[in-house]
Amino acid sequence: MKLIILGPPGVGKGTQTQRLCAEFGMTHISTGDILREAIKNGTKLGEQANAFMTKGELVPDAVMLGIIEEKLFGKQAQASYILDGFPRTITQAEGLEKLFKLHDVRIDVILLLDAEVRQIIDRLSARRTCRNCNAVYNLMTNPPKQAGRCDTCGGDLFQRNDDKAETITKRLDVYTRQTEPLVDFYRKSGNLRVIPATGTPDEVFQNIKKELIGGK
Ligand code: AP5
Ligand code: MG
After folding, report:
1. 10 Rama class: left (phi>0) / alpha (psi -120 to 50) / beta
2. Across residues 63-89, what is the average pLDDT?
3. How far is CA 197 from the centre of its chain?
């Protein structure tokens, strides 16, 4: 199965993708995590991406399409995955379609998570992420058992530097201008499912499962 998870920054894409992958044995492909890993490792890609990410802007399409082609069709390609954070522009979506056509594969479902802007800002301001395994926490709604430590691997929790108030506003604006047009793009494909994402993480997960497997 191949899924895309769409939605504004902070709506819960990473949180729900981690749950879906754990339950259904799919691979989580987060372009944000790939870029943060590159920054951590001090690679050329990381250096290039960092300048855009700290400002809340998108990394250029050609760079992202190169990353995704390698990830989806390179040596370590997987059959079953969830794309989290990609595509993010019409150009990326069209590039992805071309790649799928070339390799004769298709996306099964596009999940669109939907929540209020106020809620999104609250979620992002209190987010903490594991430096080691990328697990996502929230100081208000999903705190770690021990402050600053990941429940799963014991890794260090940190606050992403694009989770500052002014960068959050910028990212939301970038989403509206550059990513939201994808909703119409995918609506036309007939595979778009809109998921209410205003409830607790458990409730949102149930909403997604209902769409995918009828709540079983
Ligand atoms: P990326 O890492 O993809 O960030 P994003 O899209 O801005 O989304 P987030 O990861 O911030 O939010 P999320 O929806 O995953 O929410 P989460 O589950 O963490 O991208 C970062 C940057 O990389 C971009 O700005 C760009 O520069 C670059 N980039 C990446 N991909 C790119 C691409 N394709 N093209 C160009 N540039 C690209 O949840 C948020 C918080 O809320 C957490 O604390 C969580 O615990 C909490 N929470 C989650 N669900 C709930 C709930 N239901 N109730 C209460 N709290 C909840
Ligand atoms: Mg995320």
Report:
1. left
2. 96
3. 14
- Number of alpha carbons in the 13 Å side-chain half-sphere of residue 111: 27
Average pLDDT, the chain: 95
| Residue nearest (by alpha carbon) to ligand 1 atom 49 | 12
Residues 41, 112 contacting (CB under 8 angstroms): no
The pair of three-digit structure tokens given for residue 123, joined into one six-digit string: 């979620």
Number of H helices, E strands in the chain: 9, 8
Task: With beta carbons less than 8 A apart as the criterion, state whether 150 and 144 touch.
Answer: yes
| CA angle (86 as vertex; 176, 92 as ends), nearest 5 | 80
Task: Give yes or no for residue 200 CB within 6 A of ligand 1.
Answer: yes
Q: How far apart are CA 51 and CA 201, in angstroms?
A: 32
d(CA 200, CA 216): 19
Token pair, residue 163, equals: 């989770």
3-class state of residue 118 by DSSP? helix
- Condensed to tens digits (0 to 9), the pLDDT of residues 140-161 reads 999 999 999 999 999 999 999 8
Give the whole-angstrom CA distance, residue 135 versus residue 50. 21
Ligand 2 centre and the CA of 102: distance in Å? 28
